[in-house]
Write a structure and sequence with these properties.
heterodimer, A: mainly beta, 7-stranded mixed β-sheet, 4-stranded antiparallel β-sheet, B: mainly beta, globular
């Protein structure tokens, strides 16, 4: 029973390029969460998605960031025109149903470095 | 909106001793869950313990236990008989919102 799978694990992008991070939830999980962790900082909630729906995007920066979780395939966090400040670890997590009571299970993270 | 506050950025404890990590939270939900996660140097997020807010009994998992004070919105983690492998960042969470973490050092 595979856990939450994230790829790529490490991604290097030049300033101005696009970064796409993918997340496949655990089998049977229909809810996906994205978090950002800056160096030496905590986990900052970004967005919560169900299949084909964004439930809560209150933590997403207003520009350049978007997320989707299509009916088929992984969830994708997309960062356009990356800047140095986007360098961080991006964690995906999933849960079987609504967020309030279920434990969320994390992937191993994707490390984005912007040069 | 939910908020989680961990007021101790770093703590140290002697091996085999007991340490308590503090966490306070705020939520408008009537039914919610609280969690402690551990992030070792590998950066993997590992669930340590969880507490259902409607349960008065404090959760326990082996050497890890919580002191849940619902009225005070406090959810501290106690680690007994600390081991070198306990060294990590510890994050408190209310639902899907996390605190900034406490870095725990274990002194041999």
């Amino acid at each position: 029973n595979a856990g939450v799978m994230q790829n790529p694990r490490h991604l290097v992008r030049r300033r101005g390029q696009e970064a796409r991070l993918r997340c496949s939830p655990m089998k049977g999980h229909s809810h996906v969460y994205w978090y950002r962790q800056l160096p030496e900082e905590g986990l900052k909630f970004m967005v919560y998605l169900q299949k084909e729906n964004i439930i809560d995007e209150s933590g997403m920066p207003k520009e350049r960031f978007s997320a989707e979780f299509p009916k088929e395939g992984p969830s994708i966090l997309r960062i356009q025109q990356v800047v140095r400040g986007d360098s961080a670890a991006y964690f995906c997590a999933s849960s079987p149903s609504s967020s309030s009571g279920n434990t969320i299970y994390f992937g191993e993270g994707s490390w984005l470095t912007v040069v | 909106a939910q908020t989680v506050t961990q007021s101790q950025p770093e703590m140290s404890v002697q091996e085999a001793e007991t340490v308590t990590l503090s966490c306070t939270y705020d939520t408008s939900e009537s039914d919610y869950y609280l969690f402690w996660y551990k992030q070792p140097p590998s950066r993997q997020m590992i669930l340590v313990i969880r507490q259902e807010a409607y349960k008065q009994q404090n959760a326990t998992e082996n050497r890890f236990s919580v002191n849940f004070q619902k009225a005070a919105k406090s959810f501290s983690l106690k680690i007994s008989d600390s081991q070198l492998g306990d060294a990590a960042m510890y994050f408190c969470a209310c639902g899907i919102i996390f605190g900034k973490g406490t870095r725990l050092h274990i002194l041999p």
